[in-house]
Specification:
This protein is of the alpha/beta class. The chain folds into four domains: 121 residues, PAS domain (Beta-Lactamase, 2-Layer Sandwich); 160 residues, Reverse transcriptase/Diguanylate cyclase domain (Alpha-Beta Plaits), CATH 3.30.70.270; 237 residues, EAL domain (TIM Barrel); 129 residues, 3-Layer(aba) Sandwich (Rossmann fold). It is 43% helix and 24% strand. The strands form six sheets. It has an eight-stranded mixed β-barrel with strand order 13-14-16-17-18-19-20-21, surrounded by four helices. Strands 2-1-5-4-3 form a five-stranded antiparallel sheet, with helices on both faces. A five-stranded mixed sheet has the order 7-8-6-11-12. Helix 7 crosses helix 8, helix 13 packs parallel to helix 14 and helix 14 runs parallel beside helix 16. The longest helix is centred in the last third of the chain and has 25 residues. The termini are far apart. InterPro entries: Biofilm_reg_signaling (IPR052155), CheY-like_superfamily (IPR011006), EAL_dom (IPR001633), EAL_sf (IPR035919), GGDEF_dom (IPR000160), Nucleotide_cyclase (IPR029787), PAS-like_dom_sf (IPR035965), PAS_4 (IPR013656).
C-alpha cells in the first residue's frame, strides 16, 4: 500500500472519528498496520508510531477470539466479532468490523478494522440476564432456578444412592428489624445472611431466597451418615455469629426446618413443602431452633393435603352445617344465648370438627367464604327462632382475622342482618385476641363501625395471645372469653386459678362481662361462680345441639340448680382430718351453732367439696398422709381466696405455721386436744370475719384475700 493510498484510506476513516480505526496493508508475512486514527490512540492508550508496521492482531492485544479473522479477510469476507480487548489497561467488550479491499486479481491488498465500544451494552444485557435468574436483594439464584438444580441433584441421588436434603430458614424477628431500621438496612442484612449461607463451601446453585426473610439451602449427603440436626445446628451457629451493623453488633436467630430424600420426601416439591412445615413447627416452638421433618408429620401432612382437596368447594356443595352451644348465666342458671359452631359433613371424611378444618381453611385462604356463610346462616336461624316466639338471647358468631382485613366485614355483617331481617342487638361477633392484636389500629376502627351498626363484640381466647393493656382501652369490647386451657385446670392449678381471677378482674375494670369456655365439671363452675364470672359455656351445662334442639332449650331456658351447695343460715365449714373420730367429734360440736358442716379425709376430697360448695371457713389438720396442712391451706388461699383458713393440730411445726400465718395462708393455729367453748368462740369469730368480707364484696366487688 502506497503512502498516497494509505492517506486516502485514513481520510475516509477519519469520517468515523469516534471509533478506533486501523488501516491495514498486505505484506508477505501477513496484514500489518499502515495507520491508525486518533480515536485508536485514545481508546487503546498507544501512539500511532508504536503500532505502525506491526501485525494487526498485536495492535489489538492478541485476543484469542481474533483467530480466523485474517483468513476470512483473505477470502474476501466482511468479518464481525465481539469479545474483550485490553483498552488502556482495562478490559472492555468490543465489536470488531473488518472490511477487506481486493485488487483485480482477487487478492486482499488492504483492509480497515473498526472497533466499537459495546461494554456498557453488554453489561446491561448481562445485568438483565442476571436479574432474570438471580434475586436482586441477595444476589442468590431465584427459587425456580434452584428448584431445577435440586431436581437434577435428585436424579443423581437416585442413581448414586445418595441423600438429598433441604434446609428452610426463617429469620426470627426480622420484621421488627425492618420496622426499626428501615427496609434499606433490612436489605443489607439479607445480603449478609446470603453471604453466610454460601461462604461455608456450600453449593451456591442450591441456595436461594424464597421470599422476605426466608431462605432455602440444599445439600447432598453422599455417605448417608449426616445427622440432619447437626446440619441445621451448624447453620444456626453460623447465622448467630455477630454481624457488625453500624455502631452495634447484631446477632440473628432463625427457625430452621429440614426435610430429606428419601427419608420422608419423594420429590423436590416434597422437600420444599416438608422443610417449610418443619420451619413453621420450629417457630411455633419458640424459634431459634432446628426441627427435622419426620414420618409422623408426613402422615399428618398427607391427611392435611387430602382434607384440603375436599374442603375446596365445601360451601358451594352445601356440606357445612351449624350447631349451637348454650351460653349460661351463672347467677340465674339460665340460657342467655348461644355460640354458632360450624361443622363440616364431608361425604368422604364424615363429620369434621372445626378444630381440624378451620386452621387449614385459614392457610388455604378459604376462611372468608366459610365465615360469610356462617354469618348469613346464623342470622337467618336467629330470625326463625324469633318467629317461633323466643327472643331473649344473643347469638355469637366467630370472625377470623382474615375477615377483618379491609372493610368487607362491615358490608358482610350489614348484608347478613338486612337479609335475615334480624335486629343487630341479637348478634355478637367474636374476634380472637390474635386477630385483634395483629393490626390494632385497623381492627379498632372496624370495631367502632360494627358497634355503630348495633352488634356487640367479644374477645375470644383471651389470655393466650399478647394483649397490651394500653391497647385494651381502645377496643369497644362488651365481653371477654377466658380460654378453655385455663378453665380446664381450675381450681386445683394455682397458676390457672390466678390467671382466671386476673382476667375477671381486668374485664370488670374495663366494664366487660366474662364468658368462661370449656366448663366441664362442677368444680370449675363453682370456682368461676365464686370469683364473679357472669357466664359459662361448656359441656357441663350444655353440649352443642342442632337448631331445633336449641329452640327447645330457649323455650325452657332454666337449668337445674342442684350443683349449688347449701351454706346454712349460719355459714358453712369444711373440716379436714384423716382421723374419722376427730371429724365426727368436731361435727357434733359445731353443728349445734347452726353451721353447715362438710368433712374430708384427704386433701383431694377437700378440693372436691370446695369446688362444688360455697365454704366460709376451712379447718385442717397439720399432719396428713398427703403432706402438711400449711401447704394445703396455702393452695386453698390461691384457689379459694375468700375462705378463712385455720390449722387444728396436735403437732406444732412452729416455723411452717409462722410462715403460713405471716403469708396470709392461715388465719389461726389451734391445738389438739381442744377446749370446746374456746374452739366454738374462735370459729364464731372466723365466721363473722367471713360474713363481713362478703358484705364488703357485695358493696365494692371482689376484695383482697383474707
Amino acid at each position: 500500500m502506497t503512502r498516497t493510498t494509505s492517506g486516502l484510506l485514513l481520510e475516509r476513516c477519519y469520517a468515523y472519528a469516534d471509533a478506533p480505526l486501523i488501516a491495514l496493508e498486505a505484506a508477505p508475512e501477513g496484514l500489518r498496520v499502515a495507520a491508525v486514527n486518533p480515536a485508536y490512540e485514545r481508546f487503546f492508550g498507544r501512539d500511532a508510531a508504536a503500532v505502525t508496521g506491526i501485525r494487526w492482531d498485536r495492535a489489538l492485544g492478541h485476543a484469542g477470539w481474533l483467530e480466523g479473522v485474517e483468513a476470512a479477510l483473505h477470502a474476501g469476507e466482511v468479518v464481525e466479532r465481539t469479545g474483550v480487548l485490553d483498552a488502556a489497561g482495562k478490559a472492555r467488550w468490543c465489536r470488531l468490523v473488518a472490511c477487506p479491499s481486493v485488487d483485480t486479481g482477487g487478492r486482499v491488498v488492504q483492509a480497515v478494522l473498526t472497533v466499537h465500544d459495546v461494554d456498557d451494552r453488554v453489561a446491561a444485557e448481562q445485568a438483565r440476564e442476571f436479574l432474570a435468574s438471580h434475586d436482586v436483594v441477595s444476589g442468590l439464584l431465584r427459587p425456580g432456578q434452584v428448584k431445577d438444580n435440586l431436581a437434577a441433584q435428585l436424579v443423581r441421588a437416585v442413581t448414586q444412592c445418595h441423600r438429598l436434603f433441604v434446609c428452610y430458614i426463617d429469620i426470627d424477628k426480622f420484621g421488627a428489624f425492618n420496622q426499626t431500621d428501615g427496609f434499606e438496612a433490612g436489605d443489607r442484612l439479607l445480603q449478609q445472611v446470603a453471604d453466610r449461607l454460601v461462604a461455608a463451601g456450600r453449593d451456591a446453585s442450591l441456595v436461594s431466597r424464597i421470599a422476605g426473610d426466608e431462605f432455602i439451602v440444599g445439600g447432598v449427603d453422599a455417605t448417608g451418615d449426616l445427622d440432619m440436626l447437626e446440619v441445621g445446628q451448624q447453620l444456626l451457629d453460623e447465622l448467630s455469629q455477630p454481624i457488625a451493623f453500624g455502631a452495634f453488633e447484631l446477632r440473628l436467630g432463625a427457625s430452621i426446618g429440614i426435610a430429606c430424600f428419601p427419608d420422608t420426601a419423594a420429590s423436590v416439591d416434597d422437600l420444599l413443602q416438608q422443610s417449610a412445615l418443619a420451619a413453621r413447627t420450629a417457630k411455633e416452638r419458640g424459634g431459634n431452633r432446628v426441627h427435622v421433618f419426620n414420618t409422623q408429620q408426613r402422615t399428618l401432612l398427607r391427611d392435611r393435603m387430602d382434607m384440603g382437596v375436599h374442603l375446596r368447594g365445601a360451601v358451594a356443595r352445601g356440606e357445612l352445617e351449624l350447631a349451637y352451644q348454650p351460653v349460661v348465666s351463672v347467677a340465674k342458671r339460665e340460657i342467655t344465648g348461644m355460640e354458632a359452631l360450624v361443622r363440616w359433613r364431608s361425604p368422604q371424611l364424615g363429620l369434621v370438627t372445626p378444630d381440624r378444618f378451620i386452621p387449614l381453611a385459614e392457610d388455604l385462604g378459604l376462611i372468608p367464604d366459610i365465615g360469610q356463610w356462617v354469618l348469613v346462616q346464623a342470622c337467618q336461624q336467629a330470625r326463625r327462632w324469633l318467629d317461633c316466639g323466643v327472643g331473649d338471647f344473643v347469638l355469637s358468631v366467630n370472625v377470623s382475622g382474615l375477615q377483618m382485613r379491609g372493610q368487607q366485614v362491615i358490608e358482610d355483617v350489614s348484608r347478613a342482618l338486612d337479609g335475615a331481617r334480624l335486629p343487630a342487638r341479637y348478634l355478637e361477633l367474636e374476634l380472637t385476641e390474635k386477630a385483634i392484636m395483629g393490626d390494632p389500629d385497623h381492627v379498632a376502627s372496624l370495631m367502632r363501625e360494627l358497634r355503630k351498626i348495633g352488634v356487640s363484640l367479644s374477645m375470644d381466647d383471651f389470655g393466650i395471645g399478647h394483649s397490651s393493656l394500653g391497647l385494651m382501652q381502645r377496643f369497644p369490647v362488651n365481653r371477654l372469653k377466658i380460654d378453655r386451657s385455663f378453665v380446664s385446670a381450675v381450681p386445683n392449678d394455682v397458676g390457672a386459678a390466678r390467671i382466671c381471677r386476673a382476667i375477671l378482674g381486668l374485664a370488670h375494670e374495663f366494664g366487660c362481662t366474662v364468658v368462661a369456655e370449656g366448663v366441664e365439671t362442677p368444680l370449675q363452675l363453682g370456682f368461676l361462680e365464686r370469683n364473679g364470672c357472669e357466664y359459662i359455656q361448656g359441656h357441663y351445662l350444655g353440649e352443642p345441639v342442632s337448631a331445633d334442639g336449641m329452640l327447645a332449650r330457649l323455650r325452657n331456658p332454666s337449668l337445674r340448680t342442684a350443683d349449688q351447695g347449701n351454706r346454712g343460715d349460719a355459714g358453712s365449714i369444711l373440716l379436714v382430718d384423716d382421723e374419722q373420730n376427730v371429724l365426727r367429734a368436731l361435727a357434733r360440736l359445731l353443728r349445734r351453732d347452726g353451721y353447715a358442716i362438710h368433712t374430708a379425709g384427704t386433701f383431694q376430697q377437700a378440693f372436691d367439696i370446695l369446688g362444688t360448695t360455697e365454704v366460709d371457713v376451712v379447718v385442717s389438720d397439720h399432719r396428713m398422709p398427703e403432706g402438711r396442712g400449711t401447704e394445703f391451706l396455702g393452695k386453698v388461699k390461691e384457689t379459694h381466696p375468700r375462705t378463712i383458713r385455720m390449722i387444728l393440730s396436735g403437732y406444732a411445726d412452729i416455723g411452717a405455721v409462722t410462715e403460713a400465718i405471716n403469708g396470709g395462708a392461715v388465719y389461726r393455729f389451734l391445738t389438739k386436744p381442744w377446749v370446746d367453748d374456746e374452739l366454738r368462740k374462735v370459729i364464731k369469730e372466723a365466721m363473722a370475719r367471713a360474713r363481713r368480707d362478703q358484705v364488703q364484696r357485695g358493696a365494692t366487688g371482689p376484695v383482697a384475700d383474707a
